[in-house]
Amino acid sequence: MVLDRLQAGFARWRAEPPAHARFGADFLAPPPPPKALAASEVPRVAWMLATRWRYTAALAAVPAGRGGAVMVLPGLFDADGSSVVLRDFLTRLGYRAEGWGLGRNLGVKSVGLEAERLIARVEALCAEAGPVTLVGVSLGGIMARLVAHRRPELVAKVITVSSPYAGGGRATNVWRAFEWATGERVDDPAVIARSQAIAAPLPVPCTAIWSRSDGFVNGFICHDPSAEAVEVSSGHLGVHIHPEVLLAIAGALAKDAVVQDR
């Protein structure tokens, strides 16, 4: 009885958009997720880690991909160590999975004012292995889109994971941490203009993996009509190692290979 009620309540919640999903066309209009969702992030990631074993068979059954270079761009404060699980998974599928090699993601402090250091890394990998698929987590996905706009010839595809690119910085519960880490202000006209340019449709294929229950960023601005949207059930912390996300990334890579074959 209790389980039936919980399932019915979850179904209603998914069918009825939450308050932070209701906003107009204004880029700066989306609000952040409710504080209750943010407060649930730590226990939810703990539960995810404790129950990952349930996906062991599904992850092991993913067929090998077609290969190619993949660069994983970490989220705010994270470095390449955070993507070891994801890169090992992609390597097992036959991809050349690389970190970004720029240390911790501190925004422009890491990639340069014009993302020149990141573009140089992508350019070097492209020279060795051909156009690169960029998999960006949170802030890393926003940077991946920036590279694809600036140098589309280097990029095979962009896959964003919980990246709030389709709205302003205050549509997150971590905008103060962003300002502290990067030295930029989310309400700076230059930052807003850059964000709006990043949100424009990409000149390369794009898959946006998002969650409506994300507690740190508004999941409803983590995708847009120009991208293939894949919804998962996950919080923000640890999203890049969530089994649903690993499966979604593998599926996006495989789907792109099928399209190219045609």
In short:
By secondary structure, the chain is an alpha/beta fold. The chain is built from eleven helices and six strands. It has one domain (28-50, 66-257): Alpha/Beta hydrolase fold, catalytic domain (Rossmann fold).
Structural notes for this entry:
InterPro entries: AB_hydrolase_fold. It comes from Sphingomonas taxi. With 262 residues, this protein is α/β, with parallel strands linked by helices. Helices cover 43% and strands 12% of the residues. Helix 5 links the parallel strand 1 and strand 2. The chain is globular, with a radius of gyration of 18 Å. 43% of the residues are buried. Residues 258-262 have low confidence and may be disordered.
Main sheet: strands, sense, barrel: 6 strands, parallel
Number of helices: 11
At CATH level 3, the topology is: Rossmann fold
Low-confidence stretches: 258-262
Summed up, the domain count is: 1
| Mean pLDDT level | 91
Tell me the strand percentage band.
Answer: 5-15%
CATH architecture annotation: 3-Layer(aba) Sandwich
Q: Supply the helix-strand structural class.
A: alpha/beta
N→C terminal distance? 49 Å
CATH class annotation: Alpha Beta
Order of helices and strands: HHHHEHEHHEHEHHEEH
Helix content: 40-55%
Q: Give Rg in angstroms.
A: 18 Å
Total beta-strand segments: 6
In which order are the strands of the major sheet placed? 2-1-3-4-5-6
Name the shape in a single word.
globular
- CATH evolutionary superfamily: Alpha/Beta hydrolase fold, catalytic domain
